[in-house]
Amino acid sequence: MSDKSNLPAMDRTQGSFARFLNRLGSGSQRDPANGPFNNRLSTANKPAVPRPLLTKVYNAAAAGASLISSPTSEESDPVLPAAAEPATTVTQVTPSVAKQFPGKDEQQKQVSALIQSNGFIPKELVDHEVTWFYSNLGMDDLYFRLETPESIAKHILSLYSAKIDAFVKQESLLNFHLTHETEDGAIFIQTSTPGVNSGQGYEKKIDATYLNKSSVANGAYRMESFRSQSAITSSSFSTHLRSYFVRRCSFPLGAGESTSDSFDIREIADPYFIENATEVTLISYQRIIVQVLSRTGVVIEVQDVPHSLEKRLILGYKHETTRQFFSALTDLYHFYGLFSTRKYVEQFANGVTVMSIYLNRLPTSNSPPLEHSIQQVVKEASLLYCLPVTPLQPFFKSGKLSVQEVVYAYTCWIFAQHFLNRLGGEYSSLQSVLAKNKKNASEANEVLSKLKKRLRSDTFTRAYILEVIQTYPELIKLCYVSFAMDHYINPAQNALNPSLSFQRIQVTPVLNHDELLDHIRKTVANSQEGMIFESFVTFNQHVLKTNFYQPTKIALSFRMDPKFLPEVEYSTPLFGMFFVVGSEFRGFHLRFRDIARGGIRIVKSRNAEAYSINLRSLFDENYGLANTQQRKNKDIPEGGSKGTILLDADQQENPKFAFQKFVDAILDLVIPGKTPGIKEQIVDKYGKPEILFFGPDEGTADYMDWASLHARHRGASFWKAFTTGKSQSMGGIPHDTYGMTTRSVHQYVLGIYEKLGLKESSITKMQTGGPDGDLGSNEILISSDKAIAVVDGSGVLYDPVGIERSELARLATERKMVNHFDAAKLSKDGFRILVDESNIKLPDGTVIHSGLKFRNEFHLNPLASADLFVPCGGRPEAIDISNVQMLLKADGTARFKYIVEGANLFITQEARLKLEAAGVILFKDASANKGGVTSSSLEVLAALAFNDEEFKEHMTVKDGVIPEFYAAYVKSVQEFIESAARLEFEALWREGEKTKVPRSVLSDQLSLGIVKLNEELQTTTLWDNVPLRRLILEEAFPKLLLDKLGLDTLLSRVPEPYVKAIFGCYLASRFVYQYGSTPSQFAFFEFLGKWFEKIPQAEDEEASH
């Protein structure tokens, strides 16, 4: 417990000093009974909220209707209009109240006695001072209920001391503040000027310490804040007190964390709230909670307060989905000339937070009328909910920039970090010069790539970019207006009260892009500063649509035209790009084709240095992963895509919320808004429908069910196909359960054994990615080799005579890391080094100073030598041109004979070529690791083919009962994966033996050949040849779907662009696998011959039917 109140250091003598105190006075003597804080309803015998009324409220809210209580009777049934729920519901309300403290009079006497006993205040003034504090200041009774007489006596003495100090120093402001904190809560009291933030930062402390982390699991805190009714006055100052009471919630036993829509608010709330809230407050909160549970983002209502000019702002949201929101809201309403008299934050056991803020217009303010300001606060609260805190917040607090301008500038700051064109023409020239040296071209390209990353991070640091942005707030305004004029939907022509934000952009000059660039050049101090603001203009020019102005949102999303990406750095053009910014993360979704598939991965950072590295490489890594996926997806209709979500450095424990915000924000841009005040139509400069397909990747496998269900809740027609890797109860085919990814990788391993006549049991193997992961665990279970080393997130497991297979299989079956391996089963030369260990001696006497460093670099250690290396996990570019030499022995031969790259991008292309030149038989990720995405594609095809009832019957596993069709379909998917992998393996082996071209190059040539031919075939007249089309599709569609539904049904249900992609990829992949990537000009005619021969027979059969 701490009490930071300071007692006055003064002489206890009285005399003339007492006369001074009499002149100073104790403040306003206005009768508090006339003020709103004491005009209370007695709640002692208050009846419970009628259950029929609560039921009606629940039904109305669940249906999306607004609830407007009758202004004449609190107990009357609410009116339920049929219209869709507006963003702002205006209701008349009686404030929630606290019971009067019954022991207040007796406590006051005790406080007076304590103060008299210490002698700091003249005896004749004590009763007057205490009475004024208890009765005239307007402190809420909650304060007296919570505090002890001893604490209250200290607080009165502290306030008394502050008044004396201000008088002696002739200050115009009284500076008084105190804190009193315990394990169960806190009290903060400070002097408060209406509309001005206190310098003490108590609200930020309340956010950071109590509200940000409030949850049922971690402990939830409720908060009540009051502004004193009466002022503390003297001849030189007059000020009020603001108090905050924070208390740990005590939920009813068994309240749990249920998110069911059907609930009674009395069963999930803190008893103190239920005891003191009015019926109307309970009804309002129940309605808000229902809406919070049924949709994402913040729910906002505005209510009239009877017999008062105040407005009551109520906001609801899910626990832990935003940060610093309470204090940010204060900045927001202060910006619009409003102040609050009281504020409440309530927590509920089903994971919902509800805030209630009573607002009024500053008497001396020149701000717009209260109704207009409230409307703007409501509009911008959802923007603050997305990004409540940014480094540009001071510009908002000082009134130099609006919320929209600050959030826009923050978004552009992030955009500039990733896309500021910092390389210049010299980079292109250097690239051209190095390309002429064909012998070392691959090495030069990788060195150049690393140089590019270094230039990006060192030339324009995040701090420097931010510093420049902060230097020119007027440029931010101009750039923002340019953005807003493209994407802000103007109010209707007959609107009586255009929003303040719309009025604001009307008074700022609107410059076209050329004028804006010219103005930037004339304003900034140098070209580097100009480049930063030029990136703002680039951003504006390439945003095709955004949810920036949606009434409700939980993160900001932007559909970008990727044409701004320089070809010299990104040689393969992207088809589409989404850029997402949330309070916990930033992220991208990139795709190379309209119909594309790929996983969404969470990128975590162990420390600040790792975060900086991850941030620097985020977009390039995403681009590389999507490009690899594009080559990997050669056997399926979809092109390649990938999504990455980089958690902020201080948000490593919030991957679930970041993923949910990422998905919901992107759905804002692909599902047309149809609900006024919630999801409205946005400006769409792209103008075409888009369907995205997401899959599981690092850190997101457990979220696929939620994403699919959420897409259905949002009204997406494609919800069944939106995500793959779902649980079996939702029709998903889990990759890990059925070893889909491993089946592809292992076909390459088996192919090598077969071609070279090797016996698997005699092969030594090392793998990264341990028994806890999908690919790692299934690689262990499916193989029968002699594993000598396994590296995973927990450390390194090594045994030169072979790791005990039954123990390793146990870990793989239980999905446990190597730190759970029974070390007693290692040989005398074996060891297990964990990442958190240090100064450990190996059996050969070597001392390992850092287990983490040893784990990160073990694949480069001479101990890591085996016949076969299968990377099943690890960070991209773990082996590159700078360290690949460490995989070679002194004689130039490699420490591994065979490498099958299961983990994406584990080895750079230049390093692969070095290894192949050293004699390694290597198959790269784009060829080997395609089983998972193939399974996902076939899972989606079933979702598109079946209607909802059929899908439920044939593709969903209920209570452990697997439908007959599902079991057969999974088996056919496994067979297809193995067949496609074997086809490509044979093609690569054949072409490699024939041409002597490195297989890493051949893999790309085959992939690019298939992708290019696929796209060409979809636009040729072959598609128009209906008999040929049907013959090919009867082979390309899975036989089980054809037998169950028939080709005509499939063609009527599966979107035509998707069917075209099936047609193209089937022909292209089979042709290239058979004839190679550089066939003769007559090869395709020969290839199509077998189908043309069947056409007459097919036409005869069609005619006979």
Helix-strand layout with pairing:
Layout: E1 2-3, H1 16-24, H2 51-62, E2 90-92, H3 104-118, H4 123-136, H5 141-146, H6 149-168, E3 177-182, E4 185-192, H7 202-211, E5 221-227, E6 232-233, E7 238-248, H8 271-276, H9 279-294, E8 299-304, E9 311-318, H10 325-335, E10 338-348, E11 352-361, H11 370-386, H12 393-397, H13 403-419, H14 424-436, H15 441-459, H16 462-471, H17 473-487, H18 500-506, H19 513-523, H20 527-542, E12 543-546, E13 556-560, E14 576-581, E15 585-591, E16 596-603, H21 608-632, E17 639-647, H22 655-670, E18 693-696, H23 704-713, H24 719-722, H25 735-738, H26 740-756, E19 764-768, H27 774-782, E20 786-792, E21 795-798, H28 805-814, E22 831-834, E23 840-841, E24 847-848, H29 851-857, E25 866-871, E26 896-900, H30 909-917, E27 921-923, H31 925-928, H32 931-945, H33 948-955, H34 964-995, H35 999-1017, H36 1026-1036, H37 1039-1045, H38 1047-1053, H39 1056-1075, H40 1083-1104
Parallel strand pairs: 2-8, 16-17, 16-18, 19-20, 19-25, 25-26, 26-27
Antiparallel strand pairs: 1-3, 3-4, 4-7, 5-7, 5-10, 6-7, 8-9, 9-11, 10-11, 12-13, 13-14, 14-15, 15-17, 20-21, 21-22, 23-24
What does this structure look like?
The chain has 1105 residues and is α+β, with helices and mostly antiparallel strands. 46% of the residues lie in helices and 14% in strands. It has 40 helices and 27 strands. The strands form four sheets. Strands 1, 2, 3, 4, 5, 6, 7, 8, 9, 10 and 11 form an eleven-stranded mixed sheet that branches. Strand 16, helix 21 (608-632) and strand 17 (639-647) form a beta-alpha-beta unit. It is elongated, with a radius of gyration of 34 Å. The termini are far apart.
